[in-house]
Amino acid sequence: MLSLSFTPLVPPLMLAAVGALAVAAGLAAVLTRGLAGLVRTLALACLVGALANPSLVREEREPVKDIVAVVVDRSTSQTLGPRAAQTTAAVEELQTRLGAMEREIEARFATVTDNAGGGDGTRLFSALADLLADVPSERIAGAILVTDGVVHDIPASTALLGFNAPLHALVTGREDERDRRIALLEAPRFGLVGKDQTIRLMVDERGGTGTATLTVRRDGQLLRTLSVATGRPFALPITIDHGGPNVVELEVDGLDGELTSANNRAVLTIEGIREKLRVLLISGEPHAGERTWRNLLKSDANVDLVHFTILRPPEKQDGTPINELSLIAFPTRELFQQKISEFDLIIFDRYANQSILPNVYYDNIARYVREGGALLVAAGPEFATAGSIARTALGPVLPAAPDGRVLEMPYKAAVTDTGNRHPVTRALPGSETSPPSWGEWLRLVGAHVDAGSVLMSGAEDRPLLVLLREGEGRVGMLLSDHAWLWARGYRNGGPHLDLLRRLAHWLMKEPALEEEALRASARGGEIVIERQTMADAPEPVVVTSPDGSTREVTLTPGAPGLFNAVMSADQLGLYRLTSGGLTAFVNVGPENPRELTDVFSDTERLRPLAEATRGSVRRIASGPADAVDLPRLNLVSSGSRFAGGDWIGLRASGSAVVRGVSVVPLGYGFLGLALLLGIVLAVWLVEGRRRGLNEPDATR
Q1: Does residue 442 contact residue 478 with C-beta atoms inside 8 Å?
Q2: Planar angle of CA 319, 324, 328, nearest 5 degrees
Q3: Membrane spanning segments where (predicted)?
Q4: Residue 46's pLDDT is what?
Q5: How far apart are CA 167 and CA 609, in angstroms?
Q6: Disulfide: which of 32, 126, 186, 585 matches 267 by Cβ 3.0-4.6 Å?
Q7: 118, 183, 246: which is closest to 588 by C-alpha?
Q8: Is the CB of residue 70 less than 8 Å from the CB of residue 110?
């Protein structure tokens, strides 16, 4: 390829000034001297040309391939229905057709998943920009998107694309798709225990019947089933049953032939907050450990404590009526009949049956426990006497009965094998050594355990701490009144706060202290599974993915009673885990993934941008078998259209790379300038001679 190049010998401004003077002088010479003036003009032109220093440049060019970017959408919505198979078939066909054009075209492929956008939908254009980041815009022949049209980063204008070439979208899916989903409109994050929280939701559908059946579960237990109208928001009240996470599961029945059932289920966690933990503490004969319980419960600002102490034991009789001995009248009827259900925990601390409570009130307490209440008995020597509360109507709900012995000897409380697995006593500070590093207790009430689990043992390996589930409620029994020795630091003390707080919160059904529990949490692209159990080995965990597929995960032992596993999460959305009748949910990615919010394939979102680049958007599925029918690929050198009824075009740029350059100067620098001046001088001499010959002789 030949071209003319100039390398001026003087600055451009000077060259321009000289050129302007030459033009003016040339015009004046032509007008005044005719042909001779024309010679002068040519001489001046040669002078200016010499100063411009012209050269002939010859370039050796090698044509280069144009670049075509193909971005393949492999997001969650692309797994619905036949879309995955259509995408695979389309990509294979594109690879074949672009491969046949490899002399003119270089094809670059990129695959996009949900994780590429951090879970924030499908981001094809970010991947397209990365794919073409090192390519000059003039070499880009076009871009092809294989997608369902559900794209969340579409540029607002063609200027943001970064190239001037056609954009084509090959859309998977069908026009007659149908689906049903749950849309959460308002989902509370917190709620007071025992109160209702309202969830606002709507069942949305396309191609449905107008009504749907909604199933509501809380913590895996069925609450209700109701029929709802689709497309209409409605309110759903949910009672917060306990403190901590209350997992509410909403599930709607599916449609025949719908795209996915993954969005037919929604799970939300409402954190239960107790307005106040109401605790009733009844102390019998005053003793050194009474203040330990009071200090423990009063130190928690969330505890509303009602405390009564029996100031006179029954053996001290002086004729004074009991109601006149009370500092505050003991409202037995109000506490144990009218308002007993309002308490979260009842504690009997060294309490003996002193005929203060009628037997019917003990019946009320037993019923309170069976209906979901919590009872803790901190026993002292009175538990082994005829006045033991185990001999009242409360006895059937207690886990242990006295054997009549009271052991007065120093001993170190020990955590049993069962206790090592139980969250209440597992890893108590000081229990990691043998014997434990905490101080001794000096008294133990003998008892035989009829039911429940022995978590700690004392002197002569006898039961010390026993827990029992009774009906819907829970009962704990501490067979010693010497926990205060740990609080006072006797012989280095012990973890009395850890033990007593865990015990009280287990009785009040704190989820973190459940002895049988299944938990799951998302960590990046992984799911961390934890199984708490009292069994030697738990059942495997069955994991149901958002697309409905299942897999079985085997757990490995960790700490006593704890089993763990980590599994990869290859999909965004809600996972359901089950093991031994327990259920847990974990959401990977956003709580309401955009990929499952709008699942219908769409040809209209990309159309404005594609048509602005003179490209096209079209579906590739044809026929009932969902066969893929791709348009022809053509290279178009010029024109206003890059798409037709059965073809799509790619822009041929004709780009090339310069491999070599040769330069032939048309002048010889200052030597050429000197020769030119010689020629100009010769012109002037010739012209002067002619002028002399033409003038008349003055002497004649």
Answers
A1: no
A2: 150
A3: 12-31, 666-686
A4: 74
A5: 8
A6: 585
A7: 118
A8: yes
pLDDT confidence band for 555 (50 / 70 / 90): very high
- Comma-separated ranges of CATH 3.40.50.880 domains in the chain: 278-314+327-513
Kindly state the tokens that stand for 607.
């159309």
DSSP conformational letter for 274: -
Mean pLDDT for the chain? Answer: 86
- Residues sharing a CB contact under 8 Å with residue 315, sequence separation 6 or more, in sequence order: none
Where along the chain do the CATH 2.60.40.10 domains lie? 517-588
Mean pLDDT value of segment 248-258 = 90
What's the CA gap between 146 and 70, in Å, rounded? 7
- How many other CB atoms sit within 10 Å of the CB of residue 515? 19
Burial 567-577 (b: 16+ CB within 10 A, else e): bebebbbbbbb
Tens digits of per-residue pLDDT, 450-464? 899 999 999 999 999
Which CATH number is correct for 278-314+327-513, 3.40.50.880, 3.90.1150.10, 3.40.1000.10, 3.30.420.10?
3.40.50.880
Q: Any residues with CB less than 8 A from the CB of 39 and at least 6 apart, and which? A: 683, 687
Q: Are 171 and 82 in contact (CB under 8 A)?
A: no
CA atoms of 250 and 257, how far apart (whole Å): 21
* pLDDT score of 117: 47
State the maximum Cα–Cα separation within the chain, in Å, rounded to a whole number.
181
pLDDT above 70 (res 79): yes
Q: What is the pLDDT of residues 623-675, one digit of tens each?
A: 666 688 899 999 888 767 899 888 999 998 877 666 666 777 766 555 556 66
Q: For residue 437, which of 392, 482, 495, 378 has the smallest C-alpha distance?
A: 495
- Alpha-helical runs (H) found in 34-147: 35-52, 83-99, 124-131
Written as six digits, the tokens of 250 are: 């909403």
**Residue 299's pLDDT is what?**
84
Residue 220's identity, in one-letter code, is G
What is residue 314's predicted lDDT score, i.e. its pLDDT?
47
Fold of 517-588: Immunoglobulin-like (2.60.40)
Mean pLDDT in residue range 557-585 = 89
HSE at residue 16, side-chain half, CA atoms within 13 A, is 3
CB-CB contact of 23 with 75 (8 Å): no
In whole angstroms, what is the distance from residue 549 CA to residue 567 CA? 15
- Determine whether domain 179-186+193-266 maps to CATH 2.60.40: yes
